[in-house]
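Sequence, please.
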């Protein structure tokens, strides 16, 4: 066992623990000695690789049992590599401390660098003696921070915004993965044991196809939300600074006239009920198509009232648009799963 530990890099104690858990085949017995061979060394290397990929010892045991029963690991490992691979085509960028200082206006900021390292925006890397070197996993993220700083945003505020944004984006990613798991992957991965090589390869192909859909959906929704909210914010600033109602202009993306106040520049409470009532009867969805045009869509007044009760007057258009996008994505997922079953 000492020789096996030396060759594998594992400790004797670790090897004994693996043997007790059933992760290693029984050694050959010769007299009073246990003999370990190439099969044991290969198994230890497989366990180390799976641990590096994030598998627990319990899940590793299931995979190895499947391997021992004739079902290969290559498909599962290929699927794991596909999922764990980069979800962006960005190439990491290597920067010296001088590069960072130049990028952010030439003034060193030790606190900002430490915060960037904590957030993973910068990763310390080996460099020449006396020179601090970092790797930026996402040069785009670093460039955004530099542009915001150049526009006058303090780096501490940029870091705080990134922390908040990261939490919200991780929630979106979790929702998308739960959705995909329920509608697409369940047919492949819901069995009692690991998937076959063919099943794992098919799921890996689905991951490659679905990967860009997540970014496209978020990009489309972010563009829509920015169009809606930026116009609303600008009108609010104009009303505050001028003290005058909104003079008009193109309607905000979403429902045209979901409240008399928004279209006229007055608070909703100031709008008489008679003025609001026709708009509740015939709300119109103006979700902009790809070319930027809008198309009015009439919805039942009862539907709009229920949505308004759930999300509030100002969020009706955004809610309906988001629900529509989600339904379109669900139908796409169902179509992919249906093609597989055929």
């Amino acid at each position: 066992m000492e020789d096996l530990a030396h060759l594998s890099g594992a400790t004797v104690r670790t090897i004994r623990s693996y043997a007790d858990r059933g992760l290693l085949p029984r050694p050959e017995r010769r007299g009073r000695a246990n003999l370990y061979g190439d099969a044991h060394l290969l198994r230890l290397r497989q366990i180390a690789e799976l641990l590096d990929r994030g598998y627990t010892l319990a899940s590793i045991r299931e995979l190895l049992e499947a391997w021992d029963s004739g079902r290969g690991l290559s498909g599962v490992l290929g699927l794991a590599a596909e999922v764990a691979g980069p979800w962006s085509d960005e190439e990491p960028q290597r920067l010296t401390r001088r590069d960072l200082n130049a990028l952010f206006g030439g003034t060193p900021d030790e606190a900002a660098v430490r915060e960037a390292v904590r957030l993973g925006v910068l990763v310390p890397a080996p460099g020449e003696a006396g020179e601090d070197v970092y790797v930026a996993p996402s040069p785009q993220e670093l460039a955004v921070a530099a542009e915001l700083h150049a526009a006058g945003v303090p780096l501490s505020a940029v870091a705080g915004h990134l922390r908040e944004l990261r939490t919200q984006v991780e929630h979106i990613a979790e929702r998308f993965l739960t959705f995909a798991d329920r509608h697409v992957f369940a047919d492949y991965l819901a069995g009692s044991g690991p998937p076959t090589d063919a099943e794992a390869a098919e799921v890996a192909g689905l991951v490659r196809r679905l990967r860009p859909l997540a970014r496209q959906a978020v990009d489309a929704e972010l563009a829509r939300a920015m169009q809606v909210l930026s116009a609303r914010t600008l009108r609010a600033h104009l009303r505050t600074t001028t003290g005058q109602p909104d003079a008009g202009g193109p309607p905000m993306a979403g429902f045209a006239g979901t409240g008399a106040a928004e279209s006229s520049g007055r608070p909703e409470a100031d709008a008489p009920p008679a003025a609001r009532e026709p708009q509740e009867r015939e709300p119109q969805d103006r979700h902009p198509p790809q070319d930027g045009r809008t198309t009015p869509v009439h919805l039942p007044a009862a539907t709009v009232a229920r949505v308004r009760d759930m999300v509030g007057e100002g969020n009706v258009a955004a809610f309906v648009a988001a629900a529509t996008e989600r339904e379109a994505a669900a139908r796409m997922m169902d179509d992919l799963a249906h093609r597989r079953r055929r």
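The radius of gyration is 29 Å.
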